[in-house]
Amino acid sequence: MLRRLLPTLVALGCGLLALGWGLVSLQRIFSQERDDAHAQLRSRRDALAHAAEEALRQNLAKKLDESVPPLHAAVGDPLEPGEGYYINFRGYQFLPRLTIPMPGTGTPARDVHALLGARLKDGAPAGEWEPRLTRLRAVEAALAARDARGAATRVEELLRYHAANRLTPEQELPFLLLVVERLQRGPATTPLVRALLREGLPEDLGGFARASGLQRDVLRERSRFTRADFDFLHARIVRVSAALGEPTGDFLARAGEADAGMLVIPEELYEPTLLGESWYVALRGEAVYGIAVDLEAMLQPITQDMQARGLFDATGRLRLHAGGAVRPLSTLKLAVDMPQWARQEADIDARYGLKTLLVAVCGGLAVAIFVLAVVAQQRKYRFLELKSDFVATVSHELRTPLASIRLLGETLERKLAQAPEVRDYPARIVQAADGLHFLVENILSFNRIDKGRWTLRTSRVQLEELIPLLRDDLANVTNVPVHITSDLEGVELEADPGLLRMVFSNLGRNACAYNRRSPVEISIRAQMIPGYGCTVLFQDNGIGIPESEWENAFLDFYRLTVPGPEVHGSGLGLALCRKIMKLHRGDIQVASSGPDGTTFALIFNEPAR
């Protein structure tokens, strides 16, 4: 067959290769068109992104320059806003301010304040605090006596002593707070006492070197206090400031500043850099300056400017490319998002996809035509071979029984009266005629069922009644005894009895033909599946069917090749059995097979009764 198909295959292959080369070339053209269109859009987008990046760099540098004066002011004055500013000088971070309180739940500052207040009240000795408390009592006495000049002198003396004998912030600030609380008299408060809240002491009284007012000192030293101590000092300072009419807005705002913590600055900072998307830092001399930035807000005016100049429409927007935590400005990348461009890119891809689909369809059609042509040629030659094989097989099968009938008849005519050994010739003539009749009946039935010309004549069939008919059919098929056992008592089906008998007869004849044992054992039993149907198992003790041939055995005109003497047949028996079972909306399969025999399963979907 391959020799006959070779010229056709060569011609079709050459045509398919030529068409494939043309389709591949066409696909390359389509791909190049798509890449060029995408490159044009990408070039325009990159140009706009580059312009936006330069504008953003300039805006960031300008904003930092504008922030230097308030940044310096925040470093020198704790009451100045410090949120959003960063300055690091020689490894020490001045801004953002560290607002994390000292860990723990102790209240040493509150305890000092309470202790001193109690000693002022009860007059008990106060140890190291006694010199200060003595001077404080003297001031209170002068105020009680309405001796303003004497009170001012004693306040100055108290503060000079205090400045000369410095304490730790945990002691100093509670003491100064107590001084202000004890000596404040509203609008008539001594200027030196009032100065303790905000301005701090004059330089000749020890000011400016360390002190700058309670409000500033508490903010500056907040990390030395626990949360409870800071809240205590903060509340008392606000209360006394309100009593004296001193401003507290900036003090309240600074006390509520969120702690930005320690920013991690790269060890080698060579150029302005973005830390995450919230800080912009730059190196100036030995100090690193930084400001908190809202990149989305800074991109808005750049976007509006580009829209005003008609560089992209109102739906376009700029966004920062995702990146690492540290991004030098030289590596800053912006993306331009425009729905219009996205639609254009989608249209480009859609057109490319459509063209690719057309190329693929053409290629698929070409392959399908090639396959169909090869299959058509193969089926043509296969049909011719099957026809030839069928004619040869049927001719041989018909010729053999006919020759036997003729020979036996002639011999019977000449010798019937002369030799007793020919007395069985009539029975053998009948056997040969039965074989010929069965073959012809199989061929005719197969042809009628295959053409859809068979009309089922169904009735209620007792399967047990088919067993005697099977014995009669197999009586003259072989010289080996045939033993049939059945377990079909009470099994009844709605079926065509003639066709069921044909199925049993074909399976029985195959059991006899493909058998090397004596006697031939056939077992037929039914398995009931309540509500689903019935399965009839037809088992023999033949030579078996290889598992790879289980489905091939049911093909039209297919005959198994078995060792030993040739087995005659047309290759239609099992194929006819399957067609008959399909007519009954059932099926036949090889349930098991081996050297001990084969079991066929006849599956009836109609529940048996």
Automatic annotation (TrEMBL):
Q: Origin, by domain of life?
A: Bacteria
Catalytically driven reaction(s): ATP + protein L-histidine = ADP + protein N-phospho-L-histidine
Molecular function (GO) terms listed?
phosphorelay sensor kinase activity
Q: Which SUPFAM superfamilies match?
A: ATPase domain of HSP90 chaperone/DNA topoisomerase II/histidine kinase, Homodimeric domain of signal transducing histidine kinase
Q: Which Pfam families match?
A: HATPase_c (PF02518), HisKA (PF00512)
Keywords from UniProt, A to Z, are: Kinase, Membrane, Phosphoprotein, Transferase, Transmembrane, Transmembrane helix, Two-component regulatory system
**PANTHER family in UniProt:** HISTIDINE KINASE 1 (PTHR43711:SF1), TWO-COMPONENT HISTIDINE KINASE (PTHR43711)
Q: What is this protein called?
A: histidine kinase
